[in-house]
Structure to design on (207 residues):
């Protein structure tokens, strides 16, 4: 659905006229709202203002659907760097090139923490509703609990998997798809060059 159609749909759900939405946006007439709903290109700043006025997320208006409720108070927006694809399959080579930025609401953000995002590639995490092309937002950390979904570096590759640490010290990285075998990490084996990079905090689906 196009942005203009989403704006109109949400406006009608809230029972607002174009004039009423225009007033909430600070416009003097409904003309600007009508143009937006007809498909006129608008700036990112206007998208933020629309999201606030319509009480939805920027992700929703930009045709991204959050795994949690898509309607909420927007609050402040944070720009998170999106790096190259993270493998939800058998592994991809690491690339530190920033491809884009994703705007996420501050309800995901904790003060003093750092965040990054990757685009999922593959189908190994479909059992956790992570599909190819989804944008995954991670909090940078090297500490995870069993069952957490994390971003991991193994040698020259990095992957998104479910974290498990066994009593014998071995770490198991599990997929959420039975066709993929678990990855076993022995921390005593320095040749594996294993690192925990981050913990998954949000998934955004792009259509």
């Amino acid at each position: 659905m196009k942005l203009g159609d989403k704006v109109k749909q949400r406006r009608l759900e809230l029972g607002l006229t174009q004039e009423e939405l225009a007033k909430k946006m600070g416009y003097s007439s409904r003309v600007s709202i009508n143009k937006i709903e007809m498909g006129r290109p608008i700036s990112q700043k206007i998208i933020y203002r629309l999201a606030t006025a319509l009480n939805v997320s920027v992700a929703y208006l930009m045709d991204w659907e959050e795994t949690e409720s898509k309607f909420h108070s927007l609050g402040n927006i944070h720009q998170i760097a999106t790096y190259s694809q993270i493998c939800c399959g058998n592994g991809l080579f690491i690339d530190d090139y920033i491809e884009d930025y994703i705007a996420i609401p501050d309800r995901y953000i904790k003060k003093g923490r750092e965040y990054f995002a990757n685009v999922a590639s593959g189908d190994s995490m479909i059992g956790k509703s992570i599909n190819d092309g989804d944008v995954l937002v991670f909090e940078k950390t090297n500490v995870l609990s069993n069952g957490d979904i994390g971003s991991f570096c193994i040698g020259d590759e990095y992957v998104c998997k479910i974290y498990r640490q066994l009593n014998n010290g071995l770490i198991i990285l599990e997929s959420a798809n039975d066709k993929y075998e678990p990855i076993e990490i022995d921390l005593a084996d320095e040749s594996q060059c294993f690192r925990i990079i981050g913990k998954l905090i949000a998934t955004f689906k792009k259509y």
Summary: Confidence is low (pLDDT under 50) at residues 67-74. DSSP finds five helices and eleven strands in the chain. Residues 77-206 form a domain with the Umud Fragment, subunit A fold (CATH 2.10.109.10).
